[in-house]
Amino acid sequence: PVAASKNSTVTFDMEVSLPDPWESVSQGNREKLKAGKGRREVRWNSNLPSEQIFLIANRFSVIEEKHENISLYAFLLQDESNLANKYIQTAKYYIDLYSKFLGSYPYSKFALVENARQTGFGMPSFTLMGSRIIRFPFILHSSYPHEILHNWWGNGVFADPNDGNWSEGLTAYLADHLLLESKGKGSQYRFQEMMKYQSYVNESNEISLEEFSFRDSMASQAIGYGKLLMVFHMLRMELGEKDFIRGLRKYFENFKFRYAGYKELRKVFESVSGKNLDWFFEQWIRRKGAPKFELEDASYVRTKGKNDFFVEVSQTLPAYKIKLPIAIWEEGKILPQIHYLILDKPKQKFHMKIAGQPQAVRLDPYNEVFRKLDEREVPSSIGQTYGAVEAAIIFPVKENEKILQGYDQFSQSLIEKGNIKKSVLKDIEMSPDSDISLWVFGRENKIGMNLLPHLKKLGVQFEENGFSLKEGHFPNKDHSFIFTLPRLKNEKRSVSWVIAASEEVVPDLIRKLPHYGKYGYLVFKGNKSENVVKGIWPSNPLNLQKIFREGNFSLPAERPLLNSAVKP
To answer: How far is CA 230 from the centre of its chain?
Structure first.
């Protein structure tokens, strides 16, 4: 079929005849038909509008279970009833969860379909996921609910191709972020998304959210997924949780199986809240970039039994309008008061009256405002080296010839990405240009060895037969290590030190490491490079806080969005 326009949809009936034991998968209802000897025939009836027709076939083992009026399937490449049952039971949980939250599940079936290739696609009423991926236990409560939720956003309401793809960011916010927020890890997750933006996005690849259509790089993912999920979080802060949830439900109800964009999204949230949101969407959706703000000063004066508290906040031009949370800890109290400042100028002073003597103050304590992070608060991560505008590769002078061949393979994969400034160098006494990031290969690499004092301060001990971290001791023989730290002479640039256990592990490291971009240190075990340690170095929001008296500055737990869900 040829679409009449970008915004065309299609319904269809499709009969598929395949030799036994082949099975087919498409969207819609599955009806088995009578077939001749050695054939399997199935009709797929898709009477709900879709953007495309999908047809997948393989030698599938099919397991089916009914959940109320929804047929749940697992199409697996082997007969694995335990694995199938895990995915079917998990699908029940998330379909029920999102149905109560957003409105009834829009299809009559949902299927997990195993793919020999390592994909993670969400099609109408099914997901196509890779063989290795579905066998990771954490996928059941991370990528899997994300693909289930696409049946509301993206496949239930279609993203208008003329107005940016909002569906990925909203799905990430209501799946990946929502599930971690419910475990008390929302603030950490949002900070990591801003770290990705800092690592991968620069002037040469920056786009606005209305220009984002699909993920084709780490930079586009940091914008279309990470920045946008932060924008939805700020919209939730702006409207309050009740109106935010009402708006989501109304958007789904009004535009089910129709195309909609940011204009429709804005109008829906304006209708439920009674607020004009034109400025919000213009600032965050149509405009490129992000604000950068910091605490210039904080002081207080004791008057009439209370304290006049003053804060001065600055932001870079052009100024954004920001609802900025601020935490103030008072003497004798464990938890702070949370206030909100409306920041809309390059520099503003704010005055508040507080009862107790202040101990500390911090801007944006839960990382709720999308911003450009200050270099001082960003812990080094391998994503910074991958995303560097310019980088160099440093090989060791002395190394096993076979491992050197593996490092050469790794270096070629980096050169293909296009940001390597110079050809491969050997480690030398004099450091390379301080204005570029470095890939340093080999345990005996002199530039890598120069990182040892800094690693020691962070709790990493270099030993003759391996490394000791807080997670334990890991010998060289069967382990690969990656450490990323700031350049000694330029903290804006990073150095990633890669120590491979053997040349056999290098292809796996090349494939896996880009997916660990937020981590500062990693340990992999064996020839299959099983990740056994992944860690983020501590961060310090020096530019956002002022401490008057040392103490333990705890924060109350965040209230998860799920706790605020109201009945339709």
So the answer is: 10
**Confidence class of residue 375 from pLDDT cuts 50, 70 and 90?**
confident
Three-state DSSP at 100 gives helix
pLDDT digits over 2-26, tens only? Answer: 777 778 899 999 999 999 999 999 9
Enter the DSSP assignment of 374.
P
Residue with structure tokens 């070629």? 412
pLDDT tens, 257-307?
999 999 999 999 999 999 999 999 999 999 999 999 999 999 999 888 889
Tokens 């299959």 belong to 528
Mean pLDDT of the chain: 93
Burial class (CB in 10 A: 0-12, 13-18, 19+), 214: exposed
Cα–Cα distance between 377 and 369 in angstroms, integer?
15
The answer, yes or no, to whether the previous bond of 161 is cis (omega within 30 of 0) is no
Q: Measure the CA–CA gap between 334 and 231, rounded to whole angstroms.
A: 31
32 exposure class (CB count in 10 Å sphere: 0-12, 13-18, 19+): exposed
Q: Tokens standing for 451?
A: 């990182």
Q: Are 533 and 523 in contact (CB under 8 A)?
A: yes
For the beta carbon of residue 265, count every other beta carbon within 10 angstroms: 24
> Using H for helix, E for strand and C for coil, what is the string for 393-413?
EEECCCCCHHHHHHHHHHHHH
Q: Do 473 and 533 contact (CB within 8 A), yes or no?
A: no
| Residue 249 token pair | 């439900």
With a CB cutoff of 8 Å and minimum separation 6, the contacts of 363 are 293, 294, 295, 313, 324, 325, 326, 541, 544, 545
**3-class DSSP state for residue 555?**
coil
Instruction: Quote the pLDDT of residue 423.
Output: 64
Task: List, in sequence order, every residue forming a beta bridge with 18; answer none if it has no partner.
Answer: 40
Nearest to 385 by CA among 438, 422, 312: 438
Residues 6+ apart with CB under 8 A from 418: none
Q: Convert the pLDDT of each residue in 511-525 to its tens digit.
A: 999 989 889 999 999
- How buried is 450 (Cβ within 10 angstroms: 0-12 exposed, 13-18 middle, 19+ buried)? middle
Distance, CA of 527 to CA of 501 (rounded, Å): 8
> CA–CA separation, 11 vs 80, rounded Å?
33
pTM (2 decimals)?
0.85
3-state secondary structure of 361: strand
Which is it for strands 70-76 and 109-115: parallel, antiparallel or unpaired? parallel
